[in-house]
Amino acid sequence: MTFDTTENYVQRATDTIMPLYAIKDAVLDKAKNCHVWDTDGKKYLDCIAGIAVVSVGHCNQRMIDAATDQMNKIWMCSGSYQTDPKVKAAELLTGMCCGDQIFFTNSGAEAVEGALKLARKWAHLNKGPDCKEIIAFEDSFHGRTYGAVTCTYKSTKQPEFGPYLPGVHHAKFNDLDSVKSLISDKTCAVIVEPIQGEGGIVPATDEFIQGLRDLCTEKNVLMISDEIQAGMGRIGKVFAHAAYDYEPDITCIAKGMGGGFPIGAFLAKKEIASVFKYGDHGTTYGGNPLGTRLVYEVVDQIRQPAFLKNVMDTSAHLIAGLEKLQADTNSIEAIRGKGLMLGVDTVYDIGKLLGALQDNGLLATQAGAKSMRLTPPLTMGIAEADEALEKIEYVIKKGVM
Ligand SMILES: Cc1ncc(COP(=O)(O)O)c(C=O)c1O
């Protein structure tokens, strides 16, 4: 196959695609497990993984085989029809979650949107028509549709897109008193990321998340766990709330559950899910046989004890290597995160650091104002972790101008 030059692809993209992303000067062509190659044949270690999406590795053979088989059977049908993949994926996920029933969506934002609708209807019926307020957190991220983006903290800084959803307040993350000062008889739900991803890889403290659970129970307010980035094995358990050991009323998942196929879901306890009646919610593509077949194949790999152990072993190895580098240089200010969801603050300009890492064959993203975010495929082993550490060490020690 012959390719255009990178420069020309960048120009063609600049001409035809809305300028909503910082365009990187690498045109990605193919991938295998933890690595990707660009159209010039340059190889990169992928510590982005589509931002915590490619859970079971790029071009995972079980996914390819299942997709091929399913595409030769049936890809799409109306949500009114049941299919073997949809029912199996639903049973697999509800079997591991405190939520008894699931609704499949096409993205994370749609999972959040559905969760907000469910919480509001539950509160309307159980607490009264004025109980519609939502508490989210400063530096949160929940997606780009209007309900989800209103809960996202950034919305408070972007009035040009308003008016947003009324009744959404932002408390300080990891500060229970801040939640207590906002919670009232009008609060129907609190939505929280167990680890803030876009906000800079900031884990909730155990004390905060358990305190939040207790507070929601005491006030009869629903707790929505947005595990779209932290879930699906990324912090050592299929569900992030299981890794932290709390039980949300509604759980939102996406990203890693499809391994690269766009799909999301929200799950809820039966007494909450049962307020949804025929016609209250829906989606054209959500729960389609191709997507749910892939969810089954992906989650069935993630849930294996050896797979989850590898995540935590690789994480420990990466964190130890980063801590050594922190001790050896004056360049690392902080290392945060759990499992394979890590954030590293350095003294360097984050844009220049990510550019230097890319030049040196490692792809990483920015989170928050200045953190280098590492969310590699969960199949990353010790050898790839050493490769990442070598590349980071080289760039950090050389310095970024
Ligand atoms: C915690 C969290 N919630 C929601 C979303 C939105 O997901 P999507 O981009 O699939 O709509 C994201 C995406 O980064 C996320 O990290």
Structural account:
The protein is an alpha/beta fold. The protein has 2 domains: 6-60 and 305-398, Alpha-Beta Complex (Aspartate Aminotransferase, domain 1); 74-302, 3-Layer(aba) Sandwich (Aspartate Aminotransferase, domain 2). It is 40% helix and 18% strand. A hairpin with a 2-residue loop joins strand 1 (28-32) and strand 2 (35-38). Helix 3 (61-71) packs antiparallel against helix 11, helix 4 packs parallel to helix 11 and helix 12 runs parallel beside helix 14. The two termini are 36 Å apart. Bound molecules: pyridoxal-5'-phosphate.
- CA distance, first residue to last residue: 36 Å
Helix amount: 25-40%
Number of helices: 14
CATH class of the largest domain: Alpha Beta
- Could you give me the name of the CATH homologous superfamily of the largest domain? Type I PLP-dependent aspartate aminotransferase-like (Major domain)
